[in-house]
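When time allows, look over one protein, given below as sequence and tokens. The question is which stretches look regular and which look disordered:
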Amino acid sequence: MANDWMHQTVAQFETALFANGSLEVDGLPGPTLTNEIHPLFAINRWAQGYDQYTKYFYHRMQPALQLASLMITESCTLPWFTHVSFGQRKYDSTGKVHIAPTRHEHKPEGRHETRMRLEKLSRILIIMFIPRKYRKTNDGTSWGITWPHSSFPWFRYFSRSDLPHIPSKYYGPEYGKRDMAIITLNSDFQDFFYDGYQHFTPSMTYRVWFMFASTLVHELAHAYYYWLGRSPSERFHGKEPYWSKHDNDKESELGFSWESVTWGRIPNPINDTIRDCHALVSIKSEAFYYPAGRQKALRSLINHHGVKFTRIPLDELQHGYRSWLPSAAWRGNQWFVADRARPDMNYVSVIHAIPMWWIAHWFSGEEWNKKRRTWRQKNKYSPPPLGPTFMLIYERNTRGQCSLHVAVNQSLDPYLQDIKWQTAEMGLYDCEH
């Protein structure tokens, strides 16, 4: 992944990333969250035993666990889960299954029941770190994976006493059709919290906290769907549905849907690693069968009123740009480009640098009070914009002809506007009181 051409290209703009406040920022305020950690993430839900050291550093995870807890308890961020709880599974005209809005998800009873279901999930959930022995395996390179119990190759190294207690009633007939999932997280997170944090700057620490919270709730989105126990009774062959009909041109991936709706983007370190958590960026790629689609998307960006782009001669950058295609080396690209990257497609990729103020504000109690006031007064939640930032636009046609444009200190964010339109069209935040 470190050899990915686009990772290397973005890293070459280090001066612009510094100026934008996306790398190292002096004087960052410390986290001021005061909320309790949800029982889902309590210390007794983390596995012990084989290569598990959580009990030694659990306190260092507190800011990230507090943020993850807010994502599943606050009224403004809960609707994503309420929609999963009470939305209706439907086939669309192409045979894909999506979750359609229902009235019940907007009622106070729906929100209350969703909170209760999440609390019940905390009685059976198991969380662990992927053992270091498996670090270089396909599973080990993932940020996180969620599967039903005992599906992982390392599970045989754990005894029953190593795992969180699950009351016997959850093995009974009432819950027999529900999958009890294990969330596994990349071992690099454990390395950071164990002793790696000592070598990280405050900016880097914030980025790891943020990515840890994001990964944890991403995986919880999958675990929650398993826990609902709905798939065996709904003729959809146990497949994860699309979170909304607007996602059916992507992969059916509930975790990335949650990130997009809540953050307004899918965050990704430049070098795609936790060990050296460099600047965070987000990428959105679109694939088009016909050149007209690519040209239209490119014109809508490059010719956007008030935004000045500079074209970068690709020959000035390292070789490899002609063969670069959107790939899983960037988190989320496999969601946007559902058919996988193919050289016979036209592509437009938009990359935004994520400023440190934006990351740090999620850990501010004052900022969360503002979100609560906005929700009470307007019944409204919108992912916060990045503000003026650094962005790249890469485009490629089927003949391998490419271009790269750069904009500095600009606020153009078309993907965020798409998310706002999607949630408004489906009435996600039209909650009754």
Observations:
- The chain has one domain: 5-425.
- The longest strand covers residues 280-288.
- The longest helix spans residues 202-228.
